[in-house]
TrEMBL record:
SUPFAM superfamilies: alpha/beta-Hydrolases. The keyword Cytoplasm does not apply. This is Alpha/beta hydrolase. Keywords: Hydrolase. Residues 13-230 form the AB hydrolase-1 domain. It comes from the Bacteria. GO terms for molecular function: hydrolase activity. It comes from Actinotalea ferrariae CF5-4. The keyword Hydrolase applies.
Length: 254
């Protein structure tokens, strides 16, 4: 991790971005929280910190670095593959985590026998094996995980295209084992958020929340880009304040 931005001052929060993004790109919608008594620590994970890309995405290695960023204690938030990073980091340093919020982490290991999850993996595996150009890979990957490609500005897609080698060379998310027993035994509150747009992610989030004795919240409206969904920033405020009144376990059942 070669770049760490810090926004604001106050209670520490570590925000971990997902694949095909930088920290500031992903968490711009949460930046106003820096003026509300929070120190937002926003790393850009090593594989995405420089262009042209020279590192493969490394979920396990990133988790060790994020665990150090927790310092003496912090709230921890992760989106997509950054959610996997956050889960691993929280298990490494549970006493340094004040709360954990993960948004649609591709935690295949907790629901690998569920049909919808198997279908998502079956759609992704050939994509990584095909000799596609980076732009074609990018657009197909985003569509497969539920990001509305047609709404993304052309300039942003061009930026993201340069980051594609990091994910193509990196850790296969279905090979990452989530340490659910350690997380279930941890003292902090865990909230798992899905967007209600993709049965595989709904199932993963339901199963993960159950496995770690956490809560499952659904925030529709932004596809896989949960950090942009209406209500996500408010949810963070509730969790960080220790307020359990926010509606939870609201996922649609299949």
């Amino acid at each position: 991790m070669t770049i760490v931005d810090v926004w604001g001052a106050g209670e520490r929060v570590v925000l971990v971005h997902g694949s095909l993004a930088t920290g500031p790109q992903e968490w711009h919608g949460q930046r106003p929280l820096a003026g509300a008594g929070f120190e937002l620590v926003v790393p850009t994970r090593r594989a995405y910190a420089e262009v042209p890309v020279t590192h493969a995405e490394d979920v396990v290695g990133d988790a060790a670095e994020v665990a150090e960023l927790l310092g003496d204690g912090a709230h921890l938030v992760g989106h997509s593959s950054g959610g996997l990073v956050a889960l691993l980091a929280a298990a490494q340093r549970p006493d340094a985590v004040r709360s954990l919020v993960v948004a649609e982490p591709p935690a295949f290991s907790v629901a690998e026998h569920e049909p919808a999850v198997g279908r998502l993996r079956a759609a992704l595996e050939p994509l990584f094996a095909e000799p596609l150009g980076d732009r074609a890979f990018l657009e197909e990957f985003l569509r497969t995980v539920g990001t509305p490609v047609d709404t993304l500005p052309t300039a942003l897609l061009e930026e993201l295209e340069h980051l594609v080698p990091a994910i193509r060379r990196g850790t296969a998310m279905w090979d990452v084992a989530v340490p659910v027993d350690a997380l279930a035994a941890a003292p902090f509150r865990t909230v798992v958020v899905s967007g209600g747009h993709h049965q595989a992610f709904t199932t993963i989030c339901e199963q993960l929340a159950q496995a770690v004795q956490g809560e499952h919240v659904v925030l529709p409206g932004a596809g896989h880009e949960i950090q942009e969904a209406p209500g996500f920033t408010d949810l963070l405020r509730h969790v960080w304040a220790g307020d359990r009144s926010h509606p939870s376990d609201t996922a649609p059942r299949s």
